[in-house]
Amino acid sequence: MKKLTISALIGAALTIMSPMSVADSWIAQGVTQDSNRLTEIFEHFHANPEVGFMEFNSARVIAEELTSLGFEVHEGIAHTGVAGILRNGDGPTVMFRADMDALPIKEETDLPYKATNTTKNRLGQDIYAMHACGHDTHMTWLLGVAKQLTQNKDKWSGTVILIGQPAEELIMGADAMVKDGLYDKVPVPDILIAGHVHPVLPAGTVAISDGRRMAGTDQIDITIQGVGGHGSTPHVTKDPVVMAAQSVMGYQTVISRMVDQAQPAVLTIGAIIAGNENNIIPDSATLKANLRWFRMEDRERMIKGIKSVTDNVARMYGVSEDNMPTYEMKGFSTPVINPTHEAQIAREAMSKHLGKDNVLNGFPATMGSEDFHMLTHGYPEVPVVFLEVGAATQQTWDALINEGKQPKYMNHNPNFVVEQGAIPTGTIAATAIVQEFLNKK
Fold it and tell me: Same domain for 325 and 344?
């Protein structure tokens, strides 16, 4: 596979933009000049993925880069979180966040900078990990934004806060940073901004729309207690594997019969953990559930439905009331909603530097979830802006538009690849938005 320099990729990404807007864009010119540093950063992050709350190397790189650029840097927030502050006179306070964590997936791409070594999970076990959701790109944007703002202080005033956030995939990192005293170290922002690569949009384009962007979510561990025994005598046990299987099938009616069919909602069981031998019925089984929703009432219906199904399956098998299933509520995030006014400002800012034709509007919301906005969950008056940056080939986009054909590999797949044209595009877009809000007095 021929390795392209990011300078060439930037050139390819910018060819689809309006020539006049690119020529006039100090941000696009600055990103081009920063190309060697960006490619080194991106390929390092991709080759060295770390899972949630274990992003020590990634956090170190971010902290060192921000320090070298003159930021006031705070490290170790919620274990690995990083916050950088750059003050430049009077003006608004604008926060931009990038997530740092990878997924526990073994990479199967043929990229020359693919991840090949193992890393540690929170239990200290050696595992394979992969940046299969583009967080390597997001961290690169953050450091690209930092460089452009420090080199162009004459073009803005105010305070910039850049956040390297752990554990987005767990939907826990943003809340953990707040609980660990983030706002003892940085001021509360006037606006919060984040972005994410999009696996279908072509590199060189961005999308921003107002209203619903991403669903709210819950991660729930459901533990069913039974009575284990020999596989040959199931009648003297209370088999938690069977109870788990029946519960999973029962959950399917929670969405189809309890939630308003006009409202989008998803209930997924991502893992069933029970037993370890063919002839042993275990004492317990754990189901790992993931909920997606846009309305709190639908969330409550799903949680109530899960508990009703599971508890009554347990009762059917004779489980005592003092040994009912337990429910551990883990990651939680509300839906991402872009306000109309701020989305329009962001759209206009990106259009100046990317060209109007490359900024898409009206792109559908997804049932994916984010937790960046939980950084300001305690400050509901703070608006949030979420942008999506194309990371696919033009062929992938054309196949979807012309044939309705989905990409072969989406994010969270071991073969997922971010087209490197997403690096300059995302850096330009994020810098443009941050700078625009800094200049809103």
Answer: no
CA distance 60 to 45: 11
Q: What's the total number of domains in the chain?
A: 2
Q: Assess if residue 129 is contained within a domain.
A: yes
For 309, the domain range is 215-333
| CA–CA dist 217, 367 (Å, integer) | 9
Indicate if 329 and 352 belong to the same structural domain.
Answer: no
- Let me know if 168 is a catalytic residue: yes
Is 43 noted as a catalytic residue in this protein? no
| Residue where one domain finishes, among candidates 333, 360, 380 | 333
**Per annotation, catalytic residue among 43, 65, 99, 101:** 101
Q: Are 140 and 270 part of one and the same domain?
A: no
Q: Which residues are annotated as a binding site for Mn(2+)?
A: 133, 135, 169, 196, 412
- Which one of the listed residues 75, 168, 370, 388 is annotated catalytic? 168
What distance in Å separates the CA atoms of residue 348 and residue 355, rounded to the nearest whole number? 10
Write the CATH number for 255: 3.30.70.360
Distance set, CA 426 to CA 66, 240, 293, 396, 431 (Å): 18, 48, 28, 19, 8
Q: Classify residue 1: in a domain, yes or no.
A: no
Cα separation, 152 vs 330, in Å, equals 42
- Supply the pTM of this predicted model: 0.92
Q: Which pLDDT tens digits describe the chain residue by residue (441 residues)?
A: 233 333 343 343 444 444 334 558 999 999 999 999 999 999 999 999 999 999 999 999 999 999 999 999 999 999 999 999 999 999 999 999 999 999 999 999 999 999 999 999 999 999 999 999 999 999 999 999 999 999 999 999 999 999 999 999 999 999 999 999 999 999 999 999 999 999 999 999 999 999 999 999 999 999 999 999 999 999 999 999 999 999 999 999 999 999 999 999 999 999 999 999 999 999 999 999 999 999 999 999 999 999 999 999 999 999 999 999 999 999 999 999 999 999 999 999 999 999 999 999 988 899 999 999 999 999 999 999 999 999 999 999 999 899 999 999 999 999 999 999 999 999 999 999 999 999 987
Residue among 195, 216, 172, 192 nearest 55 (CA): 172
Domain boundary among 301, 333, 365: 333
